[in-house]
Amino acid sequence: MTIDYLIIGRGLTGTFLSYYLLRAGKKILVIDDDKPCTASKVASGVINPVTGRRIVRTWRIEELLPFAFVAYKELGNELGINLVKQCSVLDFHPSLQMSEAFEKRLDEEPEYLHKTTSVDWKQYFNHYYGVGEISPCLLVDINPMLNRWRDNLQLGHNLLNENFSWDNCTVHDDHITYKHITAKKIIFCDGVTGVENPYFKNLPYAPNKGEAIIARIPGLSPDFIYKQGLSIVPWKDDLFWIGSSYEWNFTDVLPTAAFKEKVAQQLGYWLKNPFEIVDHLASVRPANMERRPFVGLHPKYRAVGILNGMGTKGCSLAPFFAKQLTDHLVEGKPIYADADVKRFEKTLAREMN
Ligand SMILES: Cc1cc2nc3c(=O)[nH]c(=O)nc-3n(C[C@H](O)[C@H](O)[C@H](O)COP(=O)(O)OP(=O)(O)OC[C@H]3O[C@@H](n4cnc5c(N)ncnc54)[C@H](O)[C@@H]3O)c2cc1C
């Protein structure tokens, strides 16, 4: 079997890369082992344009957010489901200081920061320092997208459900072979497993564990995302995703009793309505020290490529950089220098010697 591109992984990155390469008329095959708790399957699906204590714009959000909206709309149209909606994050200020900081930023950032609408949130939440609104934000329905795209790939005979192993792969100058498959290039969209990839393992990965609770909160509107330290995000049916943690030091990727207790306690203080915890999720974000993605071909081994390092922002970064990588592969267009993996040329040349 001879193809153009062999893609390893079918999370947010592999989904969009396979989508754009197929759209460009390329012959592809995706290999994915369908692990149950990958970063993409556990993510809440929020694209928030301003974050952090200083409430500042995230990297390149002016381009990424509108691009993501169109990308999810178009993929959704192809799959016959709606994958994205525009919504607001309601920022419940946790202290007087944060309330004042938000007020000050209102004038400086009128595009994304607003005073709240007239709903009296005191009916639903215990809060003392006011509520600000961040919009437009996007909320992506990730799991239906992953499932429907998997079915779509399967229908086109473009998917192998198995674990990719280097034992079966040989890299040549201008092609690779994997079992009976010959491909012009192999592109790794393997998320946190990428830290073990012999071609890219010296990239400055900094995997980050995150946990979330799934809970039923009767009476709470699913039209908003609620934030006060924790985020409460509409999940599916009458359920909400509540999280998350950010841990750099961890020994396993399992949900912990400590996180569940902490969330239950915080929700108890914050919510006026009762809630019922129905699930608890954990996964590892493919984060890195630079907080910029790894996109492009290996500077020395040109048959091997990567789309990884999406960290906490895969929902906005994956569609945009999958398209850039596709345009680079198909038309030779440049990748942004601060995302192109060739910025690590020296490190990457060293590691294979
Ligand atoms: C708790 C939590 C909440 C998050 N919330 C958000 C959010 O609201 N918004 C946002 O933008 N981002 C969020 N993120 C980050 C986001 O999930 C990631 O940036 C994104 O999912 C990374 O996608 P990926 O395709 O690179 O990796 P993954 O989702 O990990 O996909 C990699 C795929 O490759 C497969 N694979 C790996 N190795 C092999 C192999 N050897 N053989 C076969 N298959 C293989 C895996 O099974 C998997 O399917 C969150 C992450 C976590 C953990």
Biggest beta sheet summary: 9 strands, mixed
Helix fraction, binned, reads: 25-40%
Q: State the CATH superfamily name of the domain at 2-42 and 144-205 and 289-351.
A: FAD/NAD(P)-binding domain
The stretches of 5 or more residues where confidence is low (pLDDT under 50) are none
Describe this structure in words.
With 353 residues, this protein is of the alpha+beta class. Among the domains are: 2-42 and 144-205 and 289-351, FAD/NAD(P)-binding domain (3-Layer(bba) Sandwich); 208-285, D-Amino Acid Oxidase, subunit A, domain 2 (D-Amino Acid Oxidase, Chain A, domain 2, 2-Layer Sandwich), CATH 3.30.9.10. It has 8 helices and 19 strands. The chain has helices at 12-23, 39-42, 61-79, 96-108, 142-155, 257-270, 314-331, 345-351; strands at residues 2-8, 28-32, 46-47, 50-51, 56-57, 84-92, 113-115, 131-140, 159-161, 169-171, 176-178, 181-188, 208-216, 224-228, 230-234, 239-243, 276-285, 294-297, 304-308. The strands form 3 sheets. Strands 3, 6, 7, 8, 13, 14, 15, 16 and 17 form a 9-stranded mixed sheet that branches. Strands 1, 2, 9, 10, 11, 12, 18 and 19 form an 8-stranded mixed sheet that branches. Helix 3 (61-79) crosses helix 7. The chain is elongated and about 65 Å long. The protein starts with a strand and ends with a helix. The relative contact order is 0.19. The mean pLDDT is 96. The site of flavin-adenine dinucleotide has 42 residues, from helix 1, strand 2, helix 2, strand 3 and strand 13.
